[in-house]
Write a structure and sequence with these properties.
This protein is mainly alpha-helical and 80 residues long. The protein has one domain. α1 runs parallel beside α3. It starts with 5 loop residues before the first helix and ends in a 5-residue tail after the last helix. It comes from Desulfonema magnum. This is Essential protein Yae1 N-terminal domain-containing protein.
C-alpha cells in the first residue's frame, strides 16, 4: 500500500480548488452569455411579431444554436 505524502495531498487540493474555480467561472460566463442571447432573440421575435421559439425552448438550446437562431432572426429584421 502506498501512502500519500503531504506534498501530494496539498498539490491535489490546490489543483482541485483551481479547477473548481475555473470551471465555475467558465460555467457562469456561458450561462450569462446564454441568457443575453435568449433575451435578444425574444426581443427580436417580438419586434417582428412572429414568435418562433418560446423562452423554455430556447433555454434547452446550446450556445452555438442560440447564436445561429439570433443571426437568423436578426436577418429578418428590417435594416435601417
Amino acid at each position: 500500500m502506498r501512502y500519500v505524502t503531504t506534498a501530494e495531498r496539498i498539490g491535489f487540493e490546490k489543483g482541485f480548488k483551481k479547477g473548481f474555480r475555473e470551471g465555475f467561472k467558465k460555467g457562469f460566463r456561458e450561462s450569462f452569455e446564454k441568457q443575453i442571447l435568449i433575451g435578444e432573440t425574444l426581443m427580436a421575435q417580438r419586434f417582428l411579431e412572429q414568435p418562433v421559439c418560446s423562452q423554455a425552448e430556447l433555454e434547452t438550446k446550446s450556445l452555438k444554436e442560440l447564436k445561429s437562431i439570433l443571426a437568423e432572426t436578426e436577418a429578418r429584421l428590417p435594416s435601417s
